[in-house]
Amino acid sequence: MATVPELIFRLLGASLLLAALAGPAGASVELEGEVVQGGLVFGQAPEGSQAWLDGQVLMVSPDGRFLIGFGRDDTESRKLEVTLPDGTRWSRSLTPQARSFDIQHIDGLPSEQVTPRPEVLKRIRDEAAMARRARERRDARTDWTAGFIWPAHGRITGVYGSQRILNGQPRAPHWGIDIAAPTGTPVKAPAAGLVTLTHPDMYFSGGTIFVDHGHGLVSAFLHLSEILVESGQRVEQGEVIGLIGATGRATGPHLDWRVSLGDTRVDPKLLLPPLPE
Asked: Within 13 A of 265's CA, how many CA atoms are on the CB side?
């Protein structure tokens, strides 16, 4: 399987490899990934480097690796600054390319399908806080360096960034990729990591697992019929962690796989090789 440095990501139908910023002694900063809405960029600087994004310190591993994520609606240029071990400072502006997302308008729905009851809202808020706490973890692990594989195979029924407007009220965009498959289909860890949250029945997402890949990069697996791991457990790439289901707010069995870098939701599909036949 290809590692992250070996992957050449697609950008608007063309491959993108952000050129290295060569230093006077041959040191360089290399960036790979898609500078696009929902994209994730993998950085590699010389050992001992430091990095900032818009003046905010980035987490940099001892061997110089770091991550930059772009949200669905990001349009502004971001300034990346890297200080090499010899004190040389490099900077680059990164402006995410715009994408088109599917927007659906659905009117005439009963009000209870658009605005949950007060007791349900409390449950939703409590579960959202639980998920937020799990995403706040920041480990120096770099389990994402081995790249990502498909967690399951099946028909793609939902994509990142799509959105529904119900009775004129915008709903949150869809943050993941939906893979339809029969209930009981195994779900594999797309990359190694640490299980930081398991829940058998969240209101929206049903059976839920979070796997932290390091540096705040987290995978979420939703609507599972069965959870086969425990919080605090380390999992390896390809290890079966759960089974596909239709729990929570789901109309049929599928896996909803989401990826976030801190508070930024990125598009999982941009991390993957083409879906096998």
From this structure: 16
